[in-house]
Amino acid sequence: MIHAFGCTPWHPGELATLETDSGFTHSEHNALLDEQLGIKFCSTVHLDWFHTYHGIFCYELAALMTFLAQNARCKVTYKEISSFVEDYQTAKALPKVSHLFHATCISKDTVHFKCGGSEALTLYPILAIYFRDVLPDGECSAQVKSFLAMCDVLDLLVVTREGMDMVSPEMLEASILSHMHLSQAAYGDLLWTLKFHVAAMHLARQYEMHGLLVSLFTCERRHKLLKRYIKDRPNTTSFERGLMEEVTLQHLFDLRTPWWKHGLRDLRQPGRILTRALREQFPAAETFQVSSVCSLSYCTARIGDVVALSIGDTAYIGELEKLARIFSNANVFEDVACVHFWTPVAGVGSRYYKVMRVIENPHFVPLECILAALTYSQMPNGIASCIVPAPLRALFDD
Q: Could you tell me the residue range of the domain that residue 147 belongs to?
């Protein structure tokens, strides 16, 4: 029997063990064995940090919550953690996460927290604040240190899209190894899986080799397309060829619909009251169009979101109220956003979140000033805790 990683014959029992250890399943008709394609698997395989650390996050969080629940002094419940998470509102384009905490949120079979990859990236900074600033000191300290070290790694991985000027391979490797050591100190080999090995041994090296780490968000969002055509395909003969044909044809069909969107979307004519308000701000304009959503380089923002923005060398946080396109003539226009600038509360917060006073303070700014839509928690007294994404923290450093 020939395995998918080369031409060495394997005994069926040895092959089954190899499949389990590597996480790959042998197929006699595997495209990796096609001589004409000539795929050199070990040289071309992509080690995806997004799915690697999604798995690590799910194991770490499940183990930490289990240890806390079994701590006789602490007894932190899912409900308490869920209540803290529910206080935070995510941007409208981001997945909601408060529903993730329930009686069966931890799988009993594999002891991992049930959530999607995009949900994990939205959830981890909220939990980092809880375990760093809210949980009483000394409660499962080894496990908490491991979880927070993992959050530090995620911070760096998110920033790798900015390039090596902000995160070096050495910084990434040191952070990953620090987390791995703390994880082993907290749990021994209880959590250790292939994804831990991939993270510790390969991600920093891949980053150094290529200068970037590609996160497969597309695969995360489109994996249901594969499942659609896998579900009713019991015949394994030419399984991969038939599956690729179906997926390719569906993809070509989908390309008929414009998919690349940037700037203001779904523009429409403003109503009479809004037109009057825009005319007061832009008296020289000929006509206006408005929108409720915009797509920018790293985010999608909608009216009502709390956003981070930069004007010159200064960073601000505020609530997005309006989006408009201002026409000075038929072919010349400018996209603008009306944002209520909130004021920072001195002496509170950290580099991970900023505490702001919610006020009505509208300003029109160019659309490109908006950097990201934020997750935030607003209290009845008009104070809001706004989580600053890792790539933007340097802008908000005091």
A: 49-210
Number of helices and strands (H, E) in the chain?
A: 13, 14
The long-range contacts involving 98-105, CB below 8 angstroms and separated by at least 24 positions, are 102/78, 103/78, 105/78
Based on the structure, what is the number of domains in the chain?
Answer: 3
Question: What would the pLDDT profile of 203-245 be if each residue is shown by its tens digit?
Answer: 888 888 888 887 776 666 666 777 788 877 777 777 888 888 8
Can you give the pLDDT at residue 315? 93
Domain final position from 191, 210, 229: 210
Are 386 and 376 in contact by the 8 Å Cβ rule? The answer is: yes
Q: Are 114 and 107 in contact (CB under 8 A)?
A: yes
* Contact of 376 with 384, CB cutoff 8 Å: yes
Confidence of residue 1 (pLDDT cuts 50, 70, 90): very low
Which has the minimum average pLDDT: 140-154, 156-170, 267-281? 156-170
Read off the CATH number of the domain in which 346 is found.
2.30.30.490
